[in-house]
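Bumping my old thread because nobody answered last time. Still need a sequence for this structure:
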């Protein structure tokens, strides 16, 4: 390859990389600006309240919703194996007296895709068709994407929670929040692209 050809190739690569980084950065700004700032629907009653583990605020919100009659059962997805209900309530600083027979733990999920798969299986066993989804606001968009793929016919109501450690206002000035948003946005893009790069499973004919 001649020197001029190599230079043109290098310039082309730099332009392409710069364009991709610019698009990613613009998307990140949109992603951050579009985060929920409140719960839009607080009154609709669903069959279930589903909490994706990741913070005491989520579990506390889920239990409060259950006690308020917003769902018939509470399903907590993504609980570490070996952790039972009293352990989980203690870690979340929730009184054991608030635990009821209608709180169910799921231990099979290791990530958001697993949360969706585990929740769909549980919803099917219960015969439920609607749920209120409780997770952090920054995690809600990707969670809804995965849950709607796993439960295309279900009614899903978003119920975001807002951890104190997450600084939404001027997030770029808080390294921890900025890193969290960048990672979550990148995971969201990967979730969007996954059906395009993952071959569909074909059922074998009997």
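Sorry it took so long. Here it is:
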């Amino acid at each position: 390859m001649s020197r001029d050809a190599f230079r043109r190739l290098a310039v082309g690569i730099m332009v392409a990389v710069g364009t991709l980084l610019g698009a990613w950065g613009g998307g990140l700004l949109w992603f951050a600006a579009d985060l929920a700032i409140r719960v839009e629907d607080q009154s609709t009653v669903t069959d279930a309240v589903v909490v994706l583990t990741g913070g005491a605020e989520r579990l506390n919100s889920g239990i409060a919703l259950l006690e308020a009659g917003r769902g018939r059962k509470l399903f907590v997805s993504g609980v570490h194996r070996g952790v039972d209900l009293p352990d989980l309530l203690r870690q979340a600083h929730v009184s054991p007296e608030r635990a009821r027979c209608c709180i169910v733990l799921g231990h099979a999920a290791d990530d958001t895709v697993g949360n969706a798969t585990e929740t769909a299986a549980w919803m099917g066993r219960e015969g439920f068709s609607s749920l209120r989804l409780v997770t952090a606001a920054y995690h809600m968009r990707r969670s809804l994407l995965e849950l709607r793929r796993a439960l295309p016919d279900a009614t899903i109501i978003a119920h975001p929670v807002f951890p104190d450690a997450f600084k939404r206002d001027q997030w770029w000035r808080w390294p921890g929040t900025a890193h969290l948003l960048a990672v979550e946005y990148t995971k969201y893009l990967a979730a969007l692209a996954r059906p395009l790069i993952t071959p569909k499973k074909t059922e074998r004919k009997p």
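The two ends are 55 Å apart (CA to CA). Let me know if any region looks off to you.
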